[in-house]
Request: fold
Amino acid sequence: MTTPSFSDEELRTAIARELPGVRADLERLARIPGIAFEGFDFTPLERSAEAVAELLRGLGLQTQIARIGDGHPAVIGVKPAPPGAPTVLLYAHHDVQPVGDLSRWESDPFEPVERDGRLYGRGCADDKAGIMAHVAALRAFGCGTADDRVPVGVVVFVEGEEEFGSASLPDLLEAHKDTLSSDVIVIADSGNWDIGVPALTTSLRGIVNLFVEVKVLKQAVHSGMAGGATPDALMTIARLLATLHDDNGDVAVDGLVSTSAAPLDYPEDRFREETGILDGVELIGTGRIVERLWTKPAISVLAIDAPPTAGAPNAVIPTAKAKISVRLAPGDDRRRAYATLKAHLEKHAPWGARVTVSFEHDGDPIVIEATGPAYDAARSAFKAAWDGTEPVDIGVGGSIPFIATFKEAFPDAAVLVTGVEDPFSKAHGPNESLHLGEFEKVCLAEAMLLRNVAAL
Amino acid sequence: MTDELRQRIAALMPQARTDLAELVAMKSVADPRQFPPEECARAAQWTLDAFAELGFTDARLVETADGSKAVYGTRRCPNPDAPTVLLYAHYDVQPPLDDQAWRTPPFELTEVDGRWYGRGSADCKGNIVMHLTALRALRDDVPVHLKLIVEGSEEQGTGGLEEFVAPNAELLKADAILVCDTGNAAVGSPAATVSLRGMVNVVVKVESLKTEVHSGMFGGPAPDALSALVRMLATLRDENGGTTVTGLDNTQTWTGEAYPPDRFRADAGLLDGVELLGGGHVSDLVWARPALSILGIDCPPVVGSAAALQPHAAARLNLRIPPGTDPGQAQAALTEHLKHAAPWGVHVTVEVEATGSPFRADTSGPAYAALGEAMKEAYGTEMAMLGQGGSIPLCNVFAGQYPEAEIILMGVEEPLTLMHAPNESVHPDEIAGMALTEALFLRKFADRKTG
Reply:
C-alpha cells in the first residue's frame, strides 16, 4: 500500500473528467449489433470483442480475445496487482439481446440517442454500460497513463454470449483459471433498487428454458371438413400451456420451490409503473411482490410457432411449438426443475397429442452470503457515491447463470453483483435505456470500491 | 343408355386428363399479392373457350363485385318446355401453402398410385372437367336448357359471385342448380351433400402491458398477454375436446349417413394415438355441432424470441356452426365468451372478420329424385346424404334468391382429396363416375319435368 489513497472528492472529479470519453466509447460499442442467438449473423460479435479489446489495450492491460471451440469471443485484460494488493475481477458482457419487434422502438436500437437524461439503444444498459463502468473506474485512476495509480490488480473479463446462456463460460474459466484468479469478483450485470437508491444483488432466480412441441395430424386439413372431431395443434398447445398457471396466475406446476424474500416493500403502484401494466389489468399470483419476483417460481410463454393471424387459412394446424421460460426460486435445482416441467407437460398433454419437450438452457438460482470485508467495502463505496444513501440488498427475478459458475470456479473470492440498470432500463425490451445520472454514480462507486478493496 | 354413356366417358378420360393438366398448370390463386392476376385470366379464358366449344355460344366473362370475373354462358335445347339447370364450379384455387410439404409440383398434374395430384385437381378444376366430360358424353342430346357459372374468387371468401346473384337474378335462374364443389362419401360411394355448416371468423386481441419487459425481472406478478390469451383459448374446448362456446348448443346429432370414425381418422390424417374429440360420433362433431379451431396466433416465433413478457397477443379463430344456428347469434356468443373468459383484467377486443350461414337442402323434389337414380345407375349403390363441415355461402344466396330451385351439392371432392392442404389430388374414377352421374341426371331430370 505505497500508493497514496484517493479521496472521495478526487475520485468524483476524476470520474467527471473521464465521463465524456466513456460516454463516447459506450455509444461506439452500442452501435455494434453483437447477438449470440442462433440464426443471427455472428460477425458483429467479433467486431464488438475487438472494440472491447481495444479499450482494454488503451488501459495498458495485457489483452487477449479468448474463446472455446465454436464459442463466441470473450475478452480478457490483465493488470498485475501492486505488491501486496488484492486482485479484482471485473465482469461484463458485450453481446446483447435481439431487438425483437423493430416497430416498437422509438429510435434505431443500434444508434444510441439521448432523451430526457437517458441513453436509448440495445445494450446501452445491458451490458455495454457495465463494460464502460469498469473502464471508467480504471481511467479514474489513470490506468495505462504515466500517472497510473490503480491500487489493485485487475482482470477485466468481458463475455460474448451471456444473453444466449454462457455456454462456453465454464470452459473459459477453467482454461484461464490462473489468469482470472482473484480475491474479489465484481459482476456488473444487475442494477439498483431505484433511481437514487443503490443496491447489492444477493439473490437471483434460476432459469430453465424449454421447448414444447405438440403434433396431432400428419398435415394441415380444412377446418370445415375436419374441425370438430380433430384436435388442432394450436388448441392442444393452448390447453397444455394453460395448465401451467392457476386462475390466480400462480404457477400450478407441483414440485417447484418457493421461499421468502427480504422485507423490502415494493409498492404495487411502483411495480405497475415500472412494468407498464395497463389500467384495469391485475397483477397475477399471490404473496408479497418481492416474493413473486425473487423467491417464487414464475413461468412465461415466450413464443409460439403459429401462422400469423393475417392470412391464416381455414386450416386445422398439425403441429405447434412453444418456448417456455421458467424462473426458479433460490433453493431450487435446475435439473430437477426441468424434469418436473417435462413430466408436467407430458402428463397434461390433452387428447393423446404427441408431446416433445426439449431443453434450451438453464442456470441454478443463487444466494450470496453478502457479509465480510469486501461487502463492507462495497457498501461503503455505494453509500459515498450516492451521497449518503445506504445500499439495500435485493433479489433479482432474472437469472445470471454464470454467477454460479464463478462461485464454483473461485470459491474463495467474494462475489459482488452490481450493475447499471434501474427500474426503467427495459433491458431485453424495446427502447432499452441507461439513466446517465445513475451511470455516473455507478462509475464512481466502482472506483471507490477498487480503492476500498485495496485497503483491505 | 347408361352403358353407352359409360363407354363414351371412358373414351373421353384421356382428354379429361389433358384438360385438367392444362387447368392445374394455371396458378389461378385469386390473390394478386401471391400470384399474378394473369393466371386467373388464363384460367377464365380457358374455361370460356372450352364451354363455348360445347355449344355455350354466348359464353362470356362477367365482372363480379370483388373484381373477379366469372365465366357465364347458356345452351338452349330444342324443347321450350324443358327445365333449366345451372351448372356451377369455380376456376380459382387455394394457394399451395407449404411448398416443401408437396410431394409433387403443386401446379403440375402428376399421377401417383392412381390419383392425380395438383392444386385444384379436385377443388374445383376437377369439377369443371367433370362438367365438360358429362356434356361431351351427351353430345348433341342434352335435353335441358343449360346455364353455366364458373366463378373466379371462391377460395378468397370475398363474395364476388354472391353479390352478383341478386342484381342478375334472371341470368342465373334455374329449376335445379348443381353446385359442384363437394364430393362423394368415398371413392365409389355416391353422395349428395345436404347440410353445410356456417362459420364465424374472429380475431381476438389481448393487451396487458405497454411494452415488452424482461421475463426474469418482471415475471411472476406481471401478467403477460400470451399467457392470458392461451388461458382464454383453452376455455373454448372442454376436456373431451367438445367445443364449449357459452350459449351455443353442442349436443346436436347427425341423422344422415354416418362418417365412419376410422375413415375420418385416415381422411383427416390423425396421428396414431391421437384421440377423436368431442365425446360424440364423428358425424355429430363435423356436421351437426359447432367447432372452434385456432387458425393463427400473433406472437414471437420460437427462433429469435427474447426473454420478454409479451404486452399483446392475438389469435384468429374459426367457429363452424351447424344448420339451425344463426351466425349473428354465434358471433355474439363467441365474442361474449371470450370477453368473459379473459383473466386478470386484461384488455380484450374481438373483431369479426367474416360470417356465413349454415345450409340445409330440401331433398324432396324431382331433381333429388333424378339424382338418386343417376347415382344408383352410375355407381350401383344408393346415394347417401352427407353433411359437410365447411361452408359454401353461395348456397344460401341461391336458396334465398330462388326458393323454388332445387340445390344439389356434389362433385369429385371425396375425402381423400386433401383440398386446401398440400398434396391435393383427385381420383380419375370420380371424374368419370360423377360425369356419368351428371349426364344421367340431366336426362332423368328432363324426363321428370317434361313427363
